[in-house]
Amino acid sequence: MAYGQTYFVTVDGNAFQNVSSWAGITGTNSWVFTTKPLAPASDTTNIVVAANGNGDFCTVQGAIDFVPSGNTTPRTIQIQNCVYREIVRNNSRNNLTFLGQDRTQTVIIYANNENMNSTSPLRSMFYTLGYDITMKNLKLVNSTPQGGSQAEALKVAGLRFIFWNGELDSLQDTIMVSNGGDQAYFQDSLIQGNVDYVWGSGTVYFNNCEIRSVYRGSSPNGYICQPRNDAAHNGIAFVDCQLTGSGGSFNTQYLTRNNSKDSAPASQTVFINCMMSTNINPVGWYLDGSSDPAGLRFCEYQSTDLTGTNLLDVSQRPSWSRQLTASEAADVRDLSTWFSGWVPQITP
Predict the structure, then answer these.
(1) pLDDT of amino acid 58
(2) Kind and range of the H or E element at 205?
(3) Are the C-beta atoms of residues 2 and 39 closer than 8 Å to each other?
(4) Which pLDDT score is estimated for 229?
(5) Spatial distance between the Cα atoms of 40 and 54, rounded to a whole number of angstroms
(6) pLDDT confidence of residue 276
(7) Structure letter (DSSP) for residue 185
(8) In whole angstroms, how far apart are CA 215 and each of 91, 109, 205, 218, 251?
(9) pLDDT at residue number 264
(10) How far apart, in whole angstroms, are the C-alpha atoms of residue 292 and residue 275?
(11) Which of 44, 101, 215, 228 is the most buried (most CB within 10 A)?
(12) Rg of the chain over CA atoms, in angstroms?
């Protein structure tokens, strides 16, 4: 649609099933709207999204589409408080900051999943492909119900992605960092799900986040993550995080399971000084199928209960997992080491 134009909408009376005695919407004056007079300046670096029409765009997708493909100019997309019901795709636009007004009131939500749109780029609620993407003060929700198939709230592809002071909600497959070499850093955020809800081949780091397993009414309840990184890349690290459970009393949530059939034999998950609820199975790690665990890097260091003061009894952890030394844990804490030179910068 063009700027500065008035449009009308018509709807046939038989457009909806199981609805009788409805004439539809007809005529040129029943449903009328006018587009904004002018587009933002093409070189603007601050774009405002407001569902009430007081911004540059009413949808997040509209703001992204305004940015040129392949963009490298740093731009901020300010998203005002509202519930935005949309599937969002950022394809090859770099250097973007998605800045919500409030992490509990700036919500992007939609029910998208494998049954509706097959393959992970299509089934995620928010998919971003690009370098140097930052998200702050946002709540992203894939509202697919339990049992509705794989349904990521967020899929990340690219280098140097940051998610800060936000919330990510889904059930199966909440976060996917897709490719070997992709980098994603999460801080001060809530992550919710139950079946492999952090997964992928990328290098990922969670700092001071709550990782909340949602009850699903079956056993096992699920697995926090499923890394698929190769031996040349680090996998998934949780540092100073809280591992909690909600929605029911269960004790069959595992920390991690490997990808079955040895498709990622060197995959890695590390928990450093994390506080863990009693929802976590005392075995901790799950070996899927007939896999050979010899190359797996499933490790932890000084896990405690939720008080943060009592070390967990890790005697039931499998022999092929490892308890790290203090120096090994310090290496994981070193962001430059974990991300091969990149140190994420958080600016309030």
Answers:
(1) 95
(2) strand 203-207
(3) no
(4) 96
(5) 13
(6) 97
(7) E
(8) 34, 21, 24, 8, 10
(9) 86
(10) 29
(11) 228
(12) 22
